[in-house]
Amino acid sequence: MSWALAIHGGAGGMTREHLPRATDTGARAALAEALRAGETVLAAGGAALDAVEAAVKVLEDDPHFNAGRGAALSYEGVAELDAAIMHGATRAAGAVAGVTATRHPVTLARTVMEHSPHVLLGGAGAEAFALEHGIEPATQDWLVLPERREQLAIMRAAKGGAFDVEMKFGTVGAVARDVHGHLAAATSTGGVTGKRWGRIGDSPLIGAGTYADDRACAVSATGSGEYFIRTACGHEIAARIRLGGEDAATATRGVLAEIVAMGGTGGIIVMPRAGAPIWSLATKGMYRGRISDGTPVEVAIYADE
Ligand code: ASP
């Protein structure tokens, strides 16, 4: 089986006219680095699960994206991080929500999957679990960047809805297929700017923003999370493929169209059981990239790329 990897760094209103040159260049470099991290695993015959974790870790550390360092802030100005990971061969899954002191939430999610009887841990409990398992910590000083404070201030002043000021959803995610034919998906995020009351988005919810099933596909989503939860986006795409007989591209487009019809927006990356990785976006842009065995790195931001 040929290996393949796709990643995203969030969808939103990015256009050539408005995105600063330095942001364009910096985001593309970070995406390429994340692809290389996953490629190193997959090209050596490693597991899809290791590849998605490696790629997401690079993006969590990169301040261009809304995950780990540089995450969107809650209404109170706190980086509350959500992440999930899923193994398509066994449908084992792990996730965390609302963690505030972890450098790599995706690694914490994987530890939940591998070293606890549970799937999703939240808040203080997830932090206690992280401590017990020696997961690398991070301070809020390190996670929170001045740009995100500014975004929050604008949003609070405008008394707007709980969505990113410029609708730049910067969640990160990866989907992979390894040479053994196994699939995996991972997603990591700070959620949406100005989120309140312990709001949890689609990213850490298995079957919504993150899903993997070797019988169908692996999915990672970004966008207005509430809609991805209501459509059970990841599971719905997999079900359309597995039970409805749709090809992966048709299933992905179909579910995104439903999300848009309901009033949501965003983008999705999908790894089918065979063939090239797929992406679909309803926004002007989505930070994204893909690479397959024998196909060079492809990185894109704008919808027309
Ligand atoms: N989907 C994420 C959430 O709702 C936001 C994003 O994609 O940036 O938490």
What would your notes on this structure say?
A hairpin with a 2-residue loop joins β11 and β12 (295-302). The chain contains 9 helices and 12 strands. It is an alpha+beta fold and 305 residues long. It has a single domain (4-302), classed as Glutamine Phosphoribosylpyrophosphate, subunit 1, domain 1 (4-Layer Sandwich), CATH 3.60.20.30. It has helices spanning 21-43, 48-61, 105-115, 123-132, 140-143, 146-158, 225-230, 233-242, 248-262, and strands at 4-12, 81-87, 92-99, 120-122, 172-177, 183-189, 210-213, 217-223, 266-272, 278-281, 285-292, 295-302. The protein binds aspartic acid. The site of aspartic acid (ASP) has 15 residues, from β8.
Q: What separation lies between the terminal Cα atoms?
A: 28 Å
- Strand order, main sheet: write it out: 4-3-2-6-5-1-11-12
CATH class: Alpha Beta
Proportion of strand residues: 25-35%
The major pleated sheet works out as:
8 strands, mixed
Name the CATH architecture. 4-Layer Sandwich
Structural descriptors:
305 residues; Glutamine Phosphoribosylpyrophosphate, subunit 1, domain 1; alpha+beta; single chain; 35% helix; 9 helices; eight-stranded mixed β-sheet; binds aspartic acid
